[in-house]
Specification:
five-stranded antiparallel beta sheet; alpha+beta; HIT family, subunit A
């Protein structure tokens, strides 16, 4: 990653203390902050302190830190907000710096409706139905298994 890209990274600025954030928790490798564009109360981002565009490029220690912090904060969310579950997903497209979304999710809210719609889509098209066939499943599994 070039210095110019890192200099423009809002998450790097937050880690460096150059940009404001509501810090929820941190350790030496990861930081959890409130998202400034929340989907619901308590929506957080867990970010790596090192500028790494994609989560699968983290070191093993960074990955363990990131997901341990996500679990810790998700458990707090369950305790404090009492959602149905805490939604977790990894992004990086808009801001190319590893971050996990943690979103308390409730039955009928926008994310619940979105995923219900996505599940209906996933189950309906013929092209996706072919992915469930035993030969297609075996092929995908063989491709993903460690050699």
């Amino acid at each position: 990653m070039t210095e110019s890209v890192k200099e423009k990274c809002v998450f790097c600025d937050i880690v460096a203390g150059k940009a404001p954030a509501h810090i929820i928790d941190q350790d030496h490798l990861s930081m959890c902050i409130l998202d400034i564009h929340p989907y619901t109360k308590g929506h957080c981002l867990v970010i790596s302190k090192r500028h790494v565009p994609w989560w699968h490029e983290l070191t093993d220690d960074e990955s363990a830190s990131l997901f341990k912090m996500a679990k810790t904060v998700a458990n707090r969310m369950m305790d404090k907000f009492n959602p149905d579950f805490v939604f977790l997903y990894a992004r990086g497209r808009r801001i190319p710096h590893t971050h996990l979304f943690l979103i308390p999710t409730y039955s009928g809210d926008i994310l619940d409706r979105f995923f219900n719609a996505l599940e209906n889509f996933q189950e309906s098209p013929q092209m996706l139905a072919k992915l469930k066939e035993p030969a297609a499943m075996a092929e995908a599994a063989d491709l993903l298994k460690a050699n």
